[in-house]
Design brief:
2 copies of one chain form a homodimer.
Chain A lengths: L2 E4 L17 H11 L1 E5 L1 H9 L4 E6 L8 H5 L4 E4 L2 H8 L7 E6 L14 E5 L5 H13 L4 E4 L9 H6 L9 E3 L6 H7 L2 E6 L6 E2 H10 L3 E6 L8 H6 L2 E4 L11 H12 L5
Parallel strand pairs in A: 1-4, 3-4, 6-7, 6-11, 7-8, 9-11, 9-12, 10-12
Antiparallel strand pairs in A: 2-5, 3-5
Chain lengths: 272, 272
């Protein structure tokens, strides 16, 4: 049974996992160094827990203790109970959901573990955490097998990515490519049709591409680039097919997460 | 030609349109009372300007003046030039893009002006500004004719909605329903097939629904509800068709903007 520890001193060392949650660069280095991630809100904390992630501690405002009581009763994780004001002081923002959990990161999956997949989204340099989280949520919801991230793409276990994914980052397999330059060769060698979401003189409309896949089934690795610059020319040049979502005149692009949603639905497995 | 006015005093009355941009409830009442909206970043400012919105003033850090020089040269709008630190002090956040514009709101479009549309998204109580902005961006990009908002849905001209929409809120027609209880009757009377994105025992998969529409073309008003609670039972009961996006087992829903992206693509006009 978890022990409830009331803390009133914002400088208490036991709260160090939770400092300055809005300071992205500080959190990035702190979380990597400590091997932790932060789950926010009861629902996300439950999903982290239920997918077997080990909690280091929880930080709760008093009114959030009852909601998590069933989990706490089965665990000896330290639970720090603080006022909402103190929570705000430590984390640097108003914690609406009043519940935070620090969890141990598990050893990262290797790219090789995803090569049996039939449908992979591959994010090149998507650095926005909410976009990475949204893409993982869509891929999971629409029956794709996993997500590969280029070395510079945002961390799916960063708090906001977890939140946007609604915890799908805990269940959908994802891995980081360690080699941007040669990663796509590995995908081709593993039998993937490497398809890029982009515009090019020889691009094909997404519905036409879906029909081709119906007639000639292939494993697909779908490359998505940043919203601003799109895919690098190095990656685009290696794509066997360039796939376009037809757009109304005068509009240049969709948000990358919206494009991923459409692609995962149109090119994904038939789910009834 | 616009006059550049350097301001060093954060309490200067001329900066009042720009105070506390992160304080949603304050901004909501201030912007409604003053009839203004805030555009953030050079690109969005240009789009507001080019779609005929009247600027009240601009707030620029010095390094952003040259980028907007062509616009400023053709206008006598007051341009307040402040240090980035002062901009942060006034607005309450670090203005990455260094350029803000306060524009006059135009008289709101009436719902009646959208009834000739063939494809409308209808947002019930979607209160998240980024979701409303993302839905409008998708609807515009995928060739839909407009967006209707229930009385409690978020304001498309709130700064973050504008930003997420990439300025599509300036070009895509949208209007607010003034009557939540009877709004859907008006849509039916205007010949719309009222379709709800939701789950119900008699729902139909979205691709099957698209085929039905191909065979029997209809005007479509597509209802989208909040992420948490979904559509109200009052609205859901009035839907002629309930449309489902098939999901993988164990996943309960997509983000509403992702669902809108899929629906706007699958049910939208054929764009080549």
């Amino acid at each position: 049974m978890a022990s409830l520890v009331e803390i009133a001193d914002p400088a208490d060392e036991r709260l160090r996992d939770y400092v300055a949650l809005r300071d992205v660069s500080l959190r990035r280095s702190l979380e990597a160094a400590q091997g932790l991630f932060i789950a926010e809100g009861e629902k996300i904390i439950r999903r982290a827990w239920q997918t077997g992630h080990l909690p280091r501690s929880l930080l709760l405002a008093p009114r959030w203790v009852p909601g998590l009581r069933d989990l706490l009763d089965t665990s000896d994780v330290p639970v720090y109970v603080v006022s909402e004001r103190l929570a705000e002081q430590i984390t640097g923002f108003h914690v609406h959901r009043g519940a935070l959990g620090a969890f141990e990161r598990r050893p990262a999956r290797q790219m090789s573990e995803l090569l049996d997949a039939r449908r992979l989204v591959v994010c090149e340099d998507i650095v926005d955490h909410t976009n990475v989280g949204a893409i993982i949520r869509c891929a999971a919801g629409l029956g794709w097998d996993g997500v590969l991230l280029a070395p510079r793409a945002a961390d799916p276990l960063y708090r906001r990515a977890i939140k946007t994914s609604m915890g799908a980052v805990f269940s959908l397999p994802w891995a980081r490519m360690d080699d941007w330059a040669h990663g796509l060769e590995r995908l081709r060698d593993a039998g993937f049709l490497v398809a890029a979401m982009a515009l090019r003189h020889d691009d094909v409309g997404i519905d036409e591409f879906a029909e081709q896949l119906d007639q000639h089934p292939r494993k697909v690795a779908l490359l998505m680039g940043t919203e601003g610059a799109g895919l690098s020319s190095h990656w685009l040049a290696q794509a066997e097919v360039v796939v376009r979502i037809p757009m109304a005149r005068g509009i240049d692009s969709l948000n990358v997460a919206a494009a991923a949603a459409i692609a995962c639905h149109v090119l994904g497995p038939k789910i009834s």
